[in-house]
Write a structure and sequence with these properties.
2 domains; elongated; single chain; three-stranded antiparallel sheet; alpha+beta; 194 residues
């Protein structure tokens, strides 16, 4: 039995890989990077996507029992980073990266349908995350020194003071805890991302 590379690499595979990589470039360079300006996960996003694409494409060529497929899915869902905390948004983008690799590797549609599906997903992600469809409410914890303005009837004064010192357009605050000994108040501030 001879190993022929031509049987592994087909025009369909190259076309799917091209659509996948183009979708990834759009997701990372056009959506994620301009919105978050973080380069920490770029390597991870591209490699996760490529590895998922290749593994899924190769496994799609062999007959897999339902139990083995479920076990493989369980392995992928158990992947997590224990060395650092990953924000929910970054984890969501990682899930999208994995989903794009899976969809592009095993979709039964035509290349045009696959490209349109990718573009629809990316447009919807951009519309959600950029604030076109919904306003992104952000939450931040602030440790406020001093006990002035923490009474409920002075909440407007406290909110205005927090707006001045943070520069954020705060629309809601919630006092979480008060340390009377240290005179420090833990406050959650809610504001919309620009």
């Amino acid at each position: 039995m001879t190993f022929e590379i031509a049987h592994l690499i087909t025009w369909d595979l190259l076309l799917r890989l091209g659509i996948n990589l183009f979708a990834m470039i759009l997701l990372v360079r056009v959506i994620y990077l301009p919105l978050y300006k973080k380069t920490d996960f770029l390597f991870t996003f591209f490699l996760f996507n490529l590895v998922i694409f290749v593994i899924t494409h190769m496994l799609n060529k062999v007959e897999l029992s339902f139990g083995a497929a479920f076990g493989l899915f369980a392995v992928f869902t158990l992947l997590r980073y224990r060395t650092e905390i990953v924000s929910p948004k970054d984890m969501t983008y990682l899930f999208v990266v994995i989903a794009l690799g899976l969809i592009n590797a095993v979709s039964k549609g035509t290349p045009l349908e696959l490209a349109l599906l990718n573009l629809f997903m990316l447009a919807f992600i951009y519309a959600l995350d950029s604030g076109i469809l919904i306003r992104n409410e952000m939450v931040q914890t602030i440790y406020y020194k001093g006990l002035q303005n923490i009474r409920p009837e002075q909440q407007d004064l406290l909110m205005e003071h927090l707006r001045q010192i943070t520069g954020l357009q705060i629309h809601k605050i919630m006092i979480e805890s008060i340390d009377l000994g240290k005179e420090v108040v833990t406050i959650k501030v809610y504001y919309y991302q620009k």
